[in-house]
Amino acid sequence: MNAEAKAAEAAARGDKTGEAYWLHVKKVVDQAPPLSNEQVSRLRVLIWSDAEPRATAA
Fold first, then answer.
1. How many CA atoms lie within 13 A of 28 on its CB side?
2. Residue of 47, 17, 48, 19 lying closest to 4 (CA atoms)
3. Is residue 53 predicted with pLDDT exceeding 90?
């Protein structure tokens, strides 16, 4: 789900503050420069490691 969809959900609930927040998030993300290939690679590693189950200490 993206920020635009979250804003639409907030608007449907009548949550004007939530809608404004998500529209602001969308604006900031849209203005961000594109990621470099190195940044994409690092993010893929982080996302992959978050998807793996973690063992908890006993």
1. 7
2. 19
3. no
